[in-house]
Amino acid sequence: MTTYTLIAYLLVTIWSIVNIIFNGSRPTKMISWVFAVVSLPFAGPLLYYFFGVNRKKFKLFKLRQTEKRKLYSESYKELKNGNYAIHEFRGVNKNQLANLIRNNSYFPPYEGNKITLLNDGKTAFEAIFKAIENAKESIHLEYYIMERGVILDRFYELFQKKAGEGVEIRMIYDSFGSHNMRGKTVKRFKDLGVKTFSTLPLRFGNLLFTLNYRNHRKIIVIDGKVGFTGGVNVSDKYIKPVSELGIWGDMHLKIEGPAVNSLQRVFVKDYHFASDEELMLDEKYFPRIESCGDNIAQIISSGPDSKYPAIMQQYLAMIHNAEKSICIANPYFIPGTPILEALRVAALSGIEVNLLTPEKSDSRLAKYSMFSRFEDLLEAGVNIFLRPDFSHSKVIIIDGEIVSVGSGNFDYRSFEHNFETNALIYDKDIASHVKDLFDKHCKKEIQLEYVAFKNRSPITKFIEGLAKFFSPLL
């Protein structure tokens, strides 16, 4: 290493460490970044510059995104809710959970919904395509991943037909997750008249302010009356094996009823900031929705523009409110100390805690980081099951009475950096059904045993510990 290179290395390393000390929010995350900066010469400071710097503190970021989006959300609180029946819970735990979400996401729990579980990609897309075929006024889509393939082609065919019928179609996608949505792929949708925009586009002028903040939501709203949300992206991997992981499993929801109004509000806000087109006060996109079922549903929306980490708070509240059982299915279980401690407390208190996660992963770093947390959980009495296939579902069920399905993972990115949406269903029948599906996968032969897992090789433990340092990046 030359003298000039050494001086440059020392300067950028010192700059990074000083910034971490001044602007870090949590000691564990600060230590991880210091480790990355020191152990990866030049690459570590570069990673920190792109992914570690808290740009929400910067005035420029606030002017461009955060403060405007906060004001937009808060103005929605004052809009009429259509006189929909907002449910008031008798039980203290449910009432506290609903109030938390109402205060951190601005969405109340609505009565009169019909919720349909879509337990795999094939079922989800069949329901979505049928709803699009029946669209009369508008089709709104928002996805993290839109990949070229059979599924995207089917969307194109349906949009071609519906555009010819005069249906308004709007589509937004994350520019990072949908990296191949460019050029001719996007142009053919625009040529149909589909209003197509990327969210948080990766451009030279705003790269530092958008790269670490991604729109991870999966939302479709038809005519303002039928909605879909969950974990399924627009990708062929849900209908056929395109990698060694095989066909991806996932859970999605079809929502009919007043809760669709909340999904539409999430979409309209994101669409406004992607396109600068103002839809908020146009009543035709927020029609009066009649009660069409007996399910109580509440939407949770969270992102870098939120005052509070709503998704993390939702998961914490559900864990704390559980009295009998907690069931979590998630492919990226990499939570911080608050969630881990809450689960240990629950297990040590005698509550049955079950974690179901895939044995294989599309990210080796995420897998090792996830496994690094298992030993402490197993010792506290948490049951961990490693399913042999790959499931992308993000589900948490408490006491077989309340279930959450959505896009939010149990990791730093979903809690702090991504725009996410979950749907919380307060319904014993639906929660019990999801729990039955969950339990079918929790077989004894795929359960981790504490003693055997504790005795894994030192090399494996070292790799897991190393991956743990990079958890804030995942």
User: What's the CATH architecture of the largest domain?
Assistant: 2-Layer Sandwich
The helix content is 40-55%
Average pLDDT level = 86
Shape: globular
Determine the N-to-C terminus distance: 31 Å
Which structural traits does this protein have?
single chain, 474 residues, alpha/beta, Endonuclease, Chain A, 18 helices, globular
How would you characterize this protein structure?
The chain is α/β, with parallel strands linked by helices and 474 residues long. It folds into three domains: 3-53, no CATH class; 72-302, Endonuclease, Chain A (2-Layer Sandwich), CATH 3.30.870; 310-473, 2-Layer Sandwich (Endonuclease, Chain A). The protein is 44% helix and 18% strand. It has helices at 3-23, 27-39, 43-52, 59-77, 92-105, 121-133, 150-164, 184-191, 207-210, 259-275, 310-321, 337-348, 364-371, 374-380, 412-417, 428-441, 450-454, 458-469; strands at residues 110-118, 138-143, 168-174, 195-199, 219-222, 226-230, 252-256, 295-302, 325-329, 333-334, 352-358, 383-387, 395-398, 402-406, 410-411, 420-426. It has a 14-stranded mixed sheet with strand order 4-3-2-5-6-7-1-8-16-14-13-9-11-12, with helices on both faces. A two-stranded parallel ribbon has the order 10-15. Helix 7 links the parallel strand 2 (138-143) and strand 3 (168-174). The radius of gyration is 22 Å and the shape is globular. The two termini are 31 Å apart. The relative contact order is 0.13.
